[in-house]
Amino acid sequence: MNHELSTLIPVPFGSLSIPEIAENSTIKFSLIIPTYNEGDNVPEIVSILSQLLDREIPGEYELIVVDDNSPDGTWKIAQDLTAEYPQLRVMRREKEKGLSTAVIRGWQAARGKVLGVIDADLQHPPEVLLQLWGEMEQGADLAVASRHVEGGGVSEWSVIRRFLSRGAQMLGLMILPEVIGRLSDPMSGYFMVRRDAIVGKSLSPVGYKILIEVTGRGAIRWIGEVGYVFRERQAGASKVTWKQYIEYIQHLLKLRFSLWPIKRFLRFGVVGFSGVFVDMIMLYLLSDPSTLAWGLTRSKILASEVAIVNNFLWNDAWTFADFSSQQKGWRKRFKRFLKFNVVCFAGLILNVLLLNFFFNLIFKEVPYGRYISNFIAIALVTIWNFWFNLKLSWRVTDAGK
Ligand code: GDD
Ligand code: MN
Q1: How far is the CA of 238 from the centre of ligand 1 (A)?
Q2: Is 230 found in the same domain as 311?
């Protein structure tokens, strides 16, 4: 035999974001197989996956084993297989550890248009891979093997483990409904995603659940799901401990904070606050008997407009600077300004309505009731203003680029 072993893939370092595909790549699909002490399973899973993919997309896929320097030498066993399986590549990590980063490092080194992941321990039935691939070919951005759709299930899980699994899903629904609600099995570790959907996004999962990270941060429109039965482990041991539950909750919270644009909202609030002062000063300059002595209504209308201009300029240059810089030119800027005006005007009307609502229906008999009502109204209108300006005024559209 004069087959040569391929060398190990260098381990990517630095940020956990997914690069663009190399222009000359002919690979359609890269499948990551994360391993830790899976020496007994690796030959079998590699053999089965190669057979399946050789039938479907011969020569156009790659399998990447990412091993965290397992004591049982999984990486060596995998590397020895590369002589027989030329589509197989192996990464041996010695510094970083953990399932999620293993998958991301694998994707960073991958050359395929579609990126996937499967467990090495054969608990994920390999045949399902072709069904997932089918979903991608039909145009899905993400295809997930799920235990909770038709054809899915778990084999011999204890009541406790089922309960914990469902409990974790419920908790996820409460904290991150717009992400967890899109997946029937958010805990799945068996899925594929179009590279385009996650290119340039920094993926930084805490713990095990990389699917949640991909769904939360990726540009995912269409999700395909395929049922599968989670099989029993044949060899080796599971690495799940109670620690994973804690990390899961930390992960949910971290994503929650980064998906809600909290920093932007704070800036918006600061700018709004500066507007109050501008409004006050203008009102003084226009209406005070010692200055221009205009009528109060006329003065207030002009003062509000000047405050709106002030707020617009600051928001455009600071709060939404990243969006403004993508839509340059005076015309576009003026358009943003007009939209900002409309949103703020609608906000003003809403403010009056809410003030009346809270005062008349709830706080009429309460001491300082009108101020409490006004405070709530202002808080709600600030959120309203922020949200609609984010979605309307500074929204970046592809049109006119
Ligand atoms: N490189 C690397 N580093 N691989 C790891 C590590 C690690 O730190 N920890 C686990 N793996 C590999 C295992 O070798 C296996 O191939 C796969 O990741 C899943 O690990 P298991 O320990 O077998 O997890 P499990 O069977 O309890 O959990 C599975 O089911 C979950 C759904 O309930 C996994 O598929 C999860 O991804 C899935 O979410
Ligand atoms: Mn497993």
Answers
A1: 7
A2: no
- Whose tokens are 């406790």? That residue is 160
- Model confidence over 205-230: pLDDT tens digits? 888 899 999 999 999 999 999 999 99
Distance CA 313, CA 396 (A): 18
Regarding the beta carbon of 38 and ligand 1, being less than 6 Å apart is answered yes
Residue type, 337: F
- Structural domains of the chain, count: 2
Q: Are 253 and 209 in contact (CB under 8 A)?
A: no
Give the contacts of 153 (CB within 8 A, at least 6 positions apart).
Answer: 147, 227, 229, 230
| 25 in the same domain as 87 | yes
Dump pLDDT digits (tens) for 59-108: 999 999 999 999 999 999 999 999 999 999 999 999 999 999 999 999 99
Ligand that comes closest to the CA of residue 210: 1
User: Do 177 and 271 lie in a common domain?
Assistant: no
Q: pTM score, two decimals?
A: 0.80
CB 215 within 8 Å of CB 252: no
Q: Separation of 357 CA from ligand 2 center, angstroms?
A: 56
How remote is the CA of residue 238 from the centroid of ligand 2, in Å?
Answer: 5
Which protein residue has the closest C-alpha to ligand 1 atom 23? 238
Query: Cβ(102) to ligand 1 under 6 A?
Result: yes
Q: Are residues 232 and 289 in the same domain?
A: no
Q: Quick check: CB of 65 below 6 Å from ligand 1?
A: no
What's the Cα-to-Cα distance from 257 to each of 125, 261, 268, 278, 391, rounded to whole Å? Answer: 35, 7, 17, 32, 18
Q: Assign 288 to helix, strand or coil.
A: coil
Domain residues for the domain of 354 are 262-398
Q: Nearest to residue 214, comparing CAs of 181, 245, 246, 191?
A: 191
Tell me how far the alpha carbon of residue 341 lies from the centroid of ligand 2, in angstroms: 56
- Atom of ligand 1 minimally distant from the CA of 211: 39
Q: Is 45 in the pocket of ligand 1 (CB under 6 A)?
A: no
